[in-house]
Design goal:
Blueprint (H helix, E strand, L loop, with lengths): L6 H14 L6 E4 L4 E3 L2 E3 L2 E5 L9 E6 L2 E14 L2 E11 L6 H8 L2
Antiparallel strand pairs: 1-2, 1-5, 3-4, 4-7, 5-6, 6-7
Length: 109
Amino acid sequence: MTNFLPQRVLDELDSSNQGAGSSIQIPFVDTGEAQHPIRKLWPHGFALDAEDTERLPGRVDIYRGAEHMYQCLVIAGDVDDDQRIFFFKRATDVRTCADAETLCRAVAI
């Protein structure tokens, strides 16, 4: 089938396929005022760049791309090397809520 396509089209298809594998969606914290990329995420917390985030409000949302993953209450921890550690006081997985907007607002403090 590629025998019927002009070389220009084949080159464009090849270049677009090379970029397809690099579309990794990095999780980020949304404070309502700013968004911060998460450097590390584990079951009990996450790490952000220490220079960009001195403080976060207690309630934050975590997204991966456009997908809303968690609604959280966080506590700031120490700075380890160049990253600030935050611990979850509560993390609600909004993907498993029956009606995420209603239920998650009901449990938000």
